[in-house]
Task: structure prediction
Amino acid sequence: MSAPLLAIIGRPNVGKSTLFNRLVGGRPALVHDTPGLTRDRRYGDADYFGKPLRIVDTGGLDPEAASEVIGAGIHRQAMIAIGEADVLVLVVDGRAGVSSIDHQLANELRATGKPVFLVVNKIDHPTNDPLVHEFHELGLGDAWPVSAAHGRGIDALLEAICEVVDPNAPPPSEPEPEDLFDKYLSPKLDERGQPDEEAPQEEPDDGPLRVAFIGRPNAGKSSLTNRLLGEERSLVHHVAGTTTDPVDTPFSHRGREYILIDTAGIRRKARIDEDVEKIAVSMAIGQMARADVVVLVIDASIGPAEQDARIAGKIEDTGRAVVIALNKSDTISGEEAKTRLRDLTKDTFHFMPWAPVTMLSAQRGDGVDRLLDLVDQVALEHSKRIPTAQLNRFFAEVIEEMPPPLHHGRSVKIHYITQGATRPPTFLLWANTPDGLNPTYKRFIANRLRETYGFRGTPIKIIIKARKDRHKEDPNWRG
Ligand code: GDP
Ligand code: GDP
Result:
């Protein structure tokens, strides 16, 4: 049986393409600010808790032809996608409010008789949640507030969609925790062949650390590159708008080896116009999956802006470790101004409070050592692995402190936790009713993990798996 198909529909500029990228995950695709940028249908695969889902972005609704679009119904491409789809998502812009095209589309979608999810996008912050109420007039039932750009609300939405498209499907090829234990975890053994809890558990060092500088044009990425590589070697730059193969450059700093990933953002600002700027940023985002650590470079003389927050959301999405670097510190004088800038930065990146923020001046060289120290640190956290026995002891306390809320009147039991992967640290939890663990509880667990184990500068993932009540016979359960 092929995976169910979800079609993303909406008027231009509501964030369909951003949502598509978010759901498909990690893979680069250009997002463009110009409304109506014509696109063909784009298909992608998503995977949610092991359940596959195909996604199609209908794109292509042309506002220039708005009257025709409304008159003739939905654009042909969108029509085809709607016809093929098993489930429909109507995306609306929470900031812009309800429009007549939204009404038109809502009516068309309702008429198909297929399940329709109303997604109110650009709700970047909980304080904006009330904006969804006005969309009830579209008559599509509950509205799902999300921020496609930052990932807010996406898990809850996917959970609900998966329930509708394939409520009974068991997660495919569920591995037993014991198998995973063998597969992923090979704890160091002490003399008696017992797992050695105290042994360091970092991943094997596989060569130089791969670092990428990402940021808006003019933030100072080239200057920082020049500073690290030495002037001559970094005079390489690309003509704006041309794409070249990425060239990765090794460099060393204070005896440590690194590889600088060319993010194609190394360009001459004077040649860059608005559109090319965006494309450069998008391409840089595409390259960043190849890095271990991404340094988000921000021009301190301007301060962080919304686009920086969007880029940060994508870094988090790709699971890379992050350092936020406020460049051009030489332009900021006085402690008060610096504190203000730090506060503003914390505010802008409120969704990733775990990302360290540092100031530097690429031009003067101040703070460059500190930046690389942070890069080293977050790389370690990114590849940190917590031994299973330790995790389960920690987890027993967490559950005691705050048990998962009842799910349909049934208590939710979490049997076992293990760290399935690093880079980013990924935790697998086995529960009797995985649906019972809502995003709020997942966040609570993530926060506790951070309080106990740090994980500074790295996203962490929590994946919940289904498992029957059988912990009493489970030798690994130490709850
Ligand atoms: P599409 O035309 O519907 O595919 O829209 P895009 O995905 O190209 O997004 C249109 C604009 O909205 C772009 O500037 C996006 O960066 C922006 N955008 C998308 N999602 C969000 C979001 O969740 N919050 C905010 N603030 N902006 C968003
Ligand atoms: P990119 O587009 O991100 O690669 O940015 P560039 O490295 O080309 O820098 C953009 C502009 O900012 C150039 O005029 C640089 O000289 C200037 N710049 C870069 N770093 C600093 C810094 O630390 N302090 C100051 N005052 N200017 C800087």
User: Anything to note?
Assistant: The chain has three domains: 5-165, 209-382, 388-473. The chain has a mean pLDDT of 76. The chain is about 30% helix and 20% strand.
